[in-house]
Design brief:
The structure is a single chain. By secondary structure, the protein is α/β, with parallel strands linked by helices. It has a domain at 39-140 and 155-167: RTP801-like (Ribosomal Protein L22, Chain A, Alpha-Beta Complex). The protein is built from 5 helices and 7 strands, in the order H-H-H-E-E-H-E-E-E-H-E-E. Strands 1, 2, 3, 4, 5, 6 and 7 form a 7-stranded mixed β-sheet that branches. Strand 6 (153-167) and strand 7 form a beta hairpin. The chain starts with a helix and ends with a strand. It comes from Loxia leucoptera (White-winged crossbill). This is DNA damage-inducible transcript 4 protein.
Length: 179
């Protein structure tokens, strides 16, 4: 149905110019910049979450008796941040409702290195499993290091990663994104 003028009063004061209306009709949602859809609070939360991810990677338990300092390249940080924001934009609580499981894959093994609640004060609505990979060019050089060597040895991560999203309030299928 049609909205009466009194129904629209709560939507805002002015409806905009005719030029704005013509522009809005000519642009579909997929054509618009997705950055416009992001919540500014999610942007700040994501920056904070990425700091926690980096701190967690800074003491990642990859071997039975040792921890590693995993280095996240700037390109990987930017890609992960963009993907987290994209996956959170359709969620009822945004990024605040995320549980993040952080894993690192090397060889055929996948190591769980941390679990992070984006906002511990919010009941989680979705779970993201972020699987990062060691830089494969380094693998032959470091294979022997897993048995010995200093604690907190630095290793660089590859720019490739995988994210799996599971909605905790729905029976929808698991979404897997390979980047």
């Amino acid at each position: 149905g049609r909205l009466e003028p009194s129904d629209c009063e709560s939507l805002g004061s002015a409806s905009g110019s005719e030029g704005d209306a013509e522009y809005a009709e000519g642009v579909s949602l997929p054509d618009m910049d997705l950055e416009l859809l992001h919540d500014p609070e999610d942007e700040l939360l994501c920056a904070s979450l990425m700091d926690v991810v980096q701190a967690t990677l800074g003491r990642a338990p990859l071997g039975a008796k040792r921890c590693w300092r995993l280095l996240m390249p700037a390109q990987l940080q930017a890609q992960v941040r963009a993907e987290l924001l994209r996956l959170a934009c359709s969620e009822p609580c945004g990024l605040r409702g995320a549980l993040l499981d952080l894993c690192v894959e090397h060889g055929k093994a996948c190591h769980d290195v941390g679990h992070i609640a984006a906002d511990p004060g919010v009941v989680p609505t979705f779970q993201l499993t972020l699987v990062l990979r060691l830089d494969s060019r380094l693998w032959p050089k470091i294979q022997g290091l897993f048995a010995s060597g200093p604690a907190f040895a630095p290793l660089k991560l590859s720019t490739g990663f995988r994210v799996m999203k599971k909605k905790l309030y729905s029976s929808e299928q698991l979404l897997i994104e390979e980047c």
